[in-house]
Amino acid sequence: xxxxxxxxxxxxxxxxxxxxxxxxxxxxxxxxxxxxxxxxxxxxxxxxxxxxxxxxxxxxxxxxxxxxxxxxxxxxxxxxxxxxxxxxxxxxxxxxxxxxxxxxxxxxxxxxxxxxxxx
Length: 119
What we know:
CATH class: Alpha Beta
Protein name: Oxidoreductase
InterPro entries: 4Fe4S_Fe-S-bd (IPR017896), FDH_Electron_Transfer_Unit (IPR051555)
Shape: globular
Main location: other
Domain 4Fe-4S ferredoxin-type: 7-36
Strand order of the largest sheet: 4-1-5
Order of helices and strands: EHEEHHEHE
Number of helices: 4
Largest sheet: 3 strands, antiparallel
Keywords: 4Fe-4S, Iron, Iron-sulfur, Metal-binding, Repeat
Radius of gyration: 15 Å
């Protein structure tokens, strides 16, 4: 069996505004119930961390419901969360290419679904 290249999401959450466009587009496309998400925005903070510094971040977190929009990506389209991200903080692609985009200056998260659930 040939090694298949792993695909995933790279999320630069330092610049996520918490607009929830990724959540809403995913939930509507996949007809998920009100209490389920393929991707969910989590709020961190605000926490005072010293001086004039606070941590206040929004982090898009894919759930086990996420298959990276397999039907869309099979047609060469982006997952809906990436397409509708208003802050342009999400990238989709081969994991090795995504990792090459780390700049060492921003806050990143990478998501790779379980084997066999996404393309």
